[in-house]
């Protein structure tokens, strides 16, 4: 390699290496990298893509890093740097489509080189991308392949197992999530018995999965046991997770005063940290509870705080949760319907419980507009989604609203059937 190669442009370096190999631009070309494209790179009129660099470097017998920068790095080291950069960009919320393309390219290179560690790591990151995009089945396929390919420690990567469990639930398989998280808890108990933080994290995940599976009693037992382990010396985030779990469970069981008390404790602790995203979500949970108790003024205050904390770079699902509450709290029916429709679009099809909540808000707005048939259809969809996906208390409340709508419209027989369903849902949620 030339000693001053780092001072060349990419195009100059490409021309020199091609000439040294005795190749014409046409001979160097390959599918996806035409000779005209190579000509523009050498003329300095085009910056080569990562894919083009990889293909050209392979044909020229040099590393991608050398072709791009004039400095040679071992291929595995280069992959490591690219992976770290992609993972960081993913955490910082950069363009997910672009990050996914980069990770796919790294994955291809790792497979060609037989680099199993990099392959597993790229699959893990791609699985997280899929989950964020609401592609639950794809997330499961990628994360399961990564975990099968290389031992991934639950203690070091709780986000991977939490995401995989959430994806199982999104696909309607909470039992698989429960089984996975039970294995994670057992692994934590075996390898890090004194790590209260890890135990509480997975106990929280497990309580959510058990709740989604309808096993409320065991969910409460798991959280209670974790609370017993987390004494007053436990860090703020550990206690926040526990309070959050207790609040969620109490809310599902219809114990709203208790639920609100736990989430208030979580908010108080979060305000001592810099975790604005979790604090925003806590305010949304508090707003939901306050709204359920008829405290609209307090609920509006929590929603306003949550929206401010989320800022302009919030995830679609979080914005969708804000819009659901805003639709419920909006006094003008037409505006409520408009906001609710936006919420339905934001939560998408891969978050069925949240979609049920959004359609419920839409049904309420349509009912207030006097559109009985459309509202009744929306209530039916909302109740089905909420009931099937672990939100039976909400489903019972929505069902009672639906029955009242039908009764007001003079559809007494329908109203009685819906009211009977509401009573059944209410009885199940409190059992």
Question: Any overview of this molecule?
Answer:
The protein is mostly helical. The chain contains 23 helices and no strands. Among the domains are: 5-69, Orthogonal Bundle (434 Repressor (Amino-terminal Domain)), CATH 1.10.260; 328-431, Serine Threonine Protein Phosphatase 5, Tetratricopeptide repeat, CATH 1.25.40.10. Helices cover 77% and strands 0% of the residues. Helix 1 crosses helix 3 (35-42) and helix 17 packs antiparallel against helix 18 (316-329). The longest helix is centred in the last third of the chain and has 19 residues, at 412-430. The mean pLDDT is 85.
Question: Which terms would index this structure?
Answer:
431 residues, 434 Repressor (Amino-terminal Domain), Serine Threonine Protein Phosphatase 5, Tetratricopeptide repeat, 0% strand
